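hey so u asked for the seq, here:
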Amino acid sequence: MRLALEIVAAFVRARRALRRGPIDSAVASLRVIAEPTRGAGGAVSLEEARQLGRAVARTLSLIPGDTRCMSRSLVLTRLLARRGIPAKLVIGARAAPDFLAHAWVECDGQPVLSPGDGSFGRLVEL
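ran it, C-alpha coordinates below
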Protein backbone atom coordinates (compact mmCIF):
# COMPACT_ATOMS: atom_id res chain seq x y z
CA MET A 1 0.00 0.00 0.00
CA ARG A 2 2.85 2.38 0.83
CA LEU A 3 4.45 1.79 -2.57
CA ALA A 4 1.14 2.43 -4.36
CA LEU A 5 0.80 5.76 -2.54
CA GLU A 6 4.38 6.66 -3.44
CA ILE A 7 3.65 5.87 -7.09
CA VAL A 8 0.49 8.01 -7.13
CA ALA A 9 2.33 10.90 -5.45
CA ALA A 10 5.15 10.62 -7.99
CA PHE A 11 2.58 10.61 -10.81
CA VAL A 12 1.02 13.84 -9.54
CA ARG A 13 4.46 15.41 -9.14
CA ALA A 14 5.48 14.35 -12.67
CA ARG A 15 2.33 15.83 -14.22
CA ARG A 16 2.98 19.13 -12.44
CA ALA A 17 6.63 19.15 -13.51
CA LEU A 18 5.67 18.61 -17.16
CA ARG A 19 3.21 21.50 -17.05
CA ARG A 20 5.87 23.84 -15.64
CA GLY A 21 8.64 23.32 -18.15
CA PRO A 22 10.43 21.23 -20.74
CA ILE A 23 11.02 17.51 -20.30
CA ASP A 24 14.67 17.85 -19.23
CA SER A 25 13.68 20.24 -16.42
CA ALA A 26 10.87 17.91 -15.37
CA VAL A 27 13.25 14.94 -15.17
CA ALA A 28 15.80 16.97 -13.21
CA SER A 29 13.16 18.11 -10.72
CA LEU A 30 11.94 14.54 -10.23
CA ARG A 31 15.46 13.44 -9.38
CA VAL A 32 15.88 16.07 -6.65
CA ILE A 33 15.35 14.18 -3.42
CA ALA A 34 15.47 15.83 0.00
CA GLU A 35 15.89 12.55 1.87
CA PRO A 36 16.64 9.43 -0.16
CA THR A 37 15.20 6.26 1.34
CA ARG A 38 18.63 4.71 0.87
CA GLY A 39 22.02 6.36 0.62
CA ALA A 40 23.19 7.33 -2.85
CA GLY A 41 25.74 4.91 -4.17
CA GLY A 42 23.87 1.94 -2.73
CA ALA A 43 24.08 -1.33 -4.54
CA VAL A 44 22.34 -1.03 -7.87
CA SER A 45 19.87 -3.82 -8.26
CA LEU A 46 18.50 -4.33 -11.74
CA GLU A 47 15.98 -6.78 -10.37
CA GLU A 48 14.76 -4.25 -7.79
CA ALA A 49 14.46 -1.64 -10.55
CA ARG A 50 12.43 -4.08 -12.68
CA GLN A 51 10.17 -4.92 -9.73
CA LEU A 52 9.53 -1.21 -9.25
CA GLY A 53 8.83 -0.89 -12.97
CA ARG A 54 6.21 -3.63 -12.78
CA ALA A 55 4.64 -1.99 -9.71
CA VAL A 56 4.50 1.37 -11.51
CA ALA A 57 2.86 -0.18 -14.58
CA ARG A 58 0.31 -2.08 -12.47
CA THR A 59 -0.57 0.88 -10.27
CA LEU A 60 -0.81 3.46 -13.04
CA SER A 61 -3.03 1.15 -15.10
CA LEU A 62 -5.70 1.73 -12.43
CA ILE A 63 -5.48 5.52 -12.55
CA PRO A 64 -7.60 7.53 -14.99
CA GLY A 65 -5.77 9.83 -17.36
CA ASP A 66 -2.68 9.54 -19.48
CA THR A 67 -0.54 6.86 -17.85
CA ARG A 68 1.28 5.65 -20.93
CA CYS A 69 5.03 5.27 -21.43
CA MET A 70 6.13 8.84 -20.62
CA SER A 71 4.16 8.99 -17.38
CA ARG A 72 5.39 5.56 -16.33
CA SER A 73 8.97 6.48 -17.15
CA LEU A 74 8.83 9.73 -15.19
CA VAL A 75 7.30 8.03 -12.16
CA LEU A 76 9.85 5.22 -12.23
CA THR A 77 12.68 7.75 -12.59
CA ARG A 78 11.42 9.41 -9.39
CA LEU A 79 11.17 6.12 -7.48
CA LEU A 80 14.64 4.99 -8.53
CA ALA A 81 16.14 8.36 -7.56
CA ARG A 82 14.52 8.06 -4.11
CA ARG A 83 16.31 4.73 -3.70
CA GLY A 84 19.67 6.00 -4.91
CA ILE A 85 19.53 3.86 -8.07
CA PRO A 86 20.95 5.67 -11.12
CA ALA A 87 18.84 5.35 -14.26
CA LYS A 88 18.35 6.96 -17.66
CA LEU A 89 15.06 7.99 -19.16
CA VAL A 90 15.27 7.27 -22.90
CA ILE A 91 13.03 8.81 -25.53
CA GLY A 92 12.98 7.21 -28.95
CA ALA A 93 10.98 7.43 -32.15
CA ARG A 94 10.36 5.67 -35.41
CA ALA A 95 9.23 7.22 -38.67
CA ALA A 96 7.76 4.28 -40.56
CA PRO A 97 5.30 2.87 -41.17
CA ASP A 98 3.75 5.63 -39.01
CA PHE A 99 5.52 8.10 -36.77
CA LEU A 100 5.51 6.92 -33.17
CA ALA A 101 7.45 7.99 -30.09
CA HIS A 102 8.18 5.92 -27.00
CA ALA A 103 9.83 6.44 -23.61
CA TRP A 104 11.41 3.90 -21.29
CA VAL A 105 13.88 3.67 -18.39
CA GLU A 106 17.23 1.91 -18.37
CA CYS A 107 19.39 0.92 -15.44
CA ASP A 108 22.97 -0.17 -16.09
CA GLY A 109 22.19 -0.09 -19.82
CA GLN A 110 19.37 -2.60 -19.41
CA PRO A 111 15.70 -1.73 -19.97
CA VAL A 112 13.62 -1.57 -16.82
CA LEU A 113 10.45 -0.58 -18.65
CA SER A 114 9.75 -2.02 -22.08
CA PRO A 115 11.83 -0.37 -24.82
CA GLY A 116 9.13 -1.29 -27.30
CA ASP A 117 9.50 -3.62 -30.23
CA GLY A 118 13.06 -2.65 -31.13
CA SER A 119 12.04 -0.28 -33.92
CA PHE A 120 12.60 2.92 -31.95
CA GLY A 121 15.74 4.94 -32.59
CA ARG A 122 17.14 6.70 -29.54
CA LEU A 123 16.57 10.45 -29.68
CA VAL A 124 17.65 11.52 -26.21
CA GLU A 125 18.78 10.09 -22.89
CA LEU A 126 17.99 12.06 -19.74
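Residues 2-125 form one domain. The CA atoms of residues 88 and 109 lie 8 Å apart.
lmk if thats what u needed
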